[in-house]
Give the backbone structure.
Amino acid sequence: MNLTRRQREILHLIARGMTSKEIAQQLKSTPGSINNHIMASIAALGADSRSEAVTKALRLGLVRSEASALADLAQER
């Protein structure tokens, strides 16, 4: 199961609690395009929902949690 960089990025932003509209604004895209990436991610992960896709991506290490990213930054300093 391969996710594109963009799909992983979008799942990460969903994990941070962002809506499709907010993600579209941040990535300078359209909500429709973002939703297409989300649906492709859901299908690729064999998930039934956005939240399940995020959970599976986190579990598989395809997306990092915010806490994990912050811990890595703290270690780098």
